[in-house]
Amino acid sequence: MHGGLERIAELADRAPAKDRAGTLRRLAGYLKPHAPALAVAMVFVLMGTSSQAIGPAIIKRAVDGYLAPGADPAGLRGTMQLLLGAYVVGVIGFMMQVWLIGVVGQRVLAELRVDIFDQVQRLPMRYLDGHDAGDLMSRLVNDTEIIGNFLTQGAMQSVGALLGLTVIVGMMIYTSPPLAAATLIVIPLMLWLTRFFARLSRERYRTAREAIGEVSSNLQEDISGIREAQAFARTDRNIERFSRSNAANRDANVSAVAVTSAFTPAAELLSAVATAIVIGYGGWLVVARGAAPGTVVAFVIWVGNFFRPIQQLSAIWTQAQAALAGAERVFDLLDEPIALADRPDAPALPAIQGRVAFENVTFGYEPGRPVIRDVNLVIEPGQTVALVGPTGAGKTTLGNLLLRHYGVQAGRITVDGHDIREVTARSLRRQLGVVPQEPFLFSGSVADNIRYGRPEASDAELEAAVNAVGAQDFIASLPEGYATPLGERGSGLSSGQRQLIALARAALVDPRILLLDEATANIDTRTERLIQAGLDRLLSGRTSLVIAHRLSTVRGADLVLVIDEGRIVERGSHAELLAADGVYADLYRRQLGTVAEPA
Question: Residue 386 phi/psi, 5° resolution?
Fold first, then answer.
């Protein structure tokens, strides 16, 4: 078995034991709102299973009453019509149950996917940073598809099969208790086999679901990074890595199917043994005890009908193992706590002036390893504060804390005196605007992307925002202007053009607090000069936190803070920090070669 499969099996073995009964109860909870439709489906299930059990009894009547010499042909004809009617009722019941269960299953599947998507949208950044997007996609698509197949094809079929078995056993006992006792002697062995194969297949299918998650994760990552793979001649190694994970997925599924597929031949063997018992013992009863021949004929048909549901249950069991493994992964995701969830009684943040205060704030991504250490900072309304410092100093982390992507471990952050943990995250973020270093553009038009934060904005407001950041000429040069469709992540645009759209998006939201995280890092010097006036207008009158690496962009800030190893080591205006000839002056000198103001 490939190394990838061994790795996935090791992960599955380390996973905590799952409560299968609890998982089934939760799945049943999704079915509960559809109880009326399921009740009607059960009626049709009963129609179908009853016809399978009654049919052999009608055949027994025909054999014993109308196949002897001199029997009444009209009675045989009526019996055959009755048999035909029973089977027609069964077909109608089967068709209707399949349709109803299919409708219910698809509705449940849609509800489950909505719940997953809603949960993913609210998951804390700490969780998202530690999990691959491909694995989350696999839970949303692959695992829910397996669950949907089980609900639409397996769950009710298993109920129908169990009902069919019950009715058939009842008919057999009613018709001939001695022959029924001899025939059903194989049931304990069948139950043992079912339990044995179930135990073998359970973990195999969980390993298989882990394997498809890893395949999806590798696929998503490799497709997203295909440009880098080609640029660094990594395509062959990526193909090899994907082949390994794909082979692990194949081996995991083959291993699971190998276990469950062995159940069908075992059931066939027991069916043959039961048929031999019926013919042998039933024939002796006919010859030695004068039993009716039709009883033997009916029992032969009943035995076939008895083991057919068992074989269906074996296939459904295979499907159920995969579905339960997928459901466990889905519910693991749904049960992930929202670390920064709003309190049930949390009020909305009222309209703000924009005063931001960091009070003795300490934070670390890992316990015992703080990234931000005892930071105290006040940004007055309308003030622009720039954060500078070496890479990894904690600048972006301060912005993430203000956005409540992470929660402080000590101290607090307030906006207009309101602790941001005590108000709803939605009301806080609606009054904040963000321009990240790597803006994410969605599939859709240029206008759709700019309106992302305010879909209801008018065309005039859209154009005003674009003009404010100096993006009008670039957009006018596009083939269809504002209606130009963008590919995934804005493919086809330069980094600077994507950043201009992100700036216009922030301008359209018109926030009271604006966070610029290296917003001009990917813009060339000429483009930076073109939008600098627009940025000045965008920042005017707003509280602004500007995270910058290029120190030439922070000269106009009201206050410059130098962050190093999570602490504020210097603060002052651009000119004051240059005059102090400290860390800031050293950074400035390294970038521009001089501490003198450039012309």
Answer: -105, 135
- Residue 531 has phi, psi (to 5 degrees) of -95, -5
CATH of the domain at 400: 3.40.50.300
pLDDT of 12 > 90? The answer is: no
Domain extent, residue 415, equals: 356-592
Total number of domains in the chain: 2
Which amino acid, 276? A
The b-or-e profile of 408-443 (16+ CB within 10 A means b, else e) is beebebbbbebebbebbbebbbbbbbbbbbebebee
Q: What is the 3-state secondary structure (H, E, C) of 202-265?
A: HHHHHHHHHHHHHHHHHHHHHHHCHHHHHHCCCHHHHHHHHHHHHHHHHHHHHHHHHHHHCHHH
Q: How far apart are CA 39 and CA 37, in angstroms?
A: 5
H/E stretch holding 433 reads strand 432-435
pLDDT at 404 over 70: yes
Q: Are residues 168 and 58 part of one domain?
A: yes
User: Of 334, 368, 387, which closes a domain?
Assistant: 334
Query: pLDDT by residue (tens digit) across 195-206?
Result: 777 666 666 766
Bridge partners for 486 per DSSP:
444
Would you state the pLDDT for residue 533? 63
Residue 233: CATH number of its domain? 1.20.1560.10
417 part of a folded domain = yes
CA distance 357 to 377: 6
**pLDDT for 11:** 34
Q: Are 485 and 474 in contact (CB under 8 A)?
A: no
- Cβ–Cβ < 8 Å for 342, 324: no
- Kindly report, residue by residue over 450-478, the tens digit of the pLDDT: 898 888 889 998 898 888 877 888 888 88
Report angle CA 59, 65, 67 to the nearest 5 degrees: 80
Query: 366 and 239 in one domain?
Result: no
The angle subtended at Cα 226 by Cα 221 and Cα 232, nearest 5°, is 115
Those residues whose C-beta lies under 8 Å from the C-beta of residue 105, and which sit 6 or more positions away, are 148, 151, 152, 153, 155
Q: Clarify whether residues 188 and 297 are in a common domain.
A: yes
Both 316 and 458 in a single domain? no
Query: How far apart are the C-alpha atoms of 503 and 495, rounded to whole Å?
Result: 12
Would you say 267 and 314 are in contact if contact means Cβ atoms under 8 Å apart? yes
Look-up of token digits 């609900």: 151
Both 524 and 416 in one domain: the answer is yes
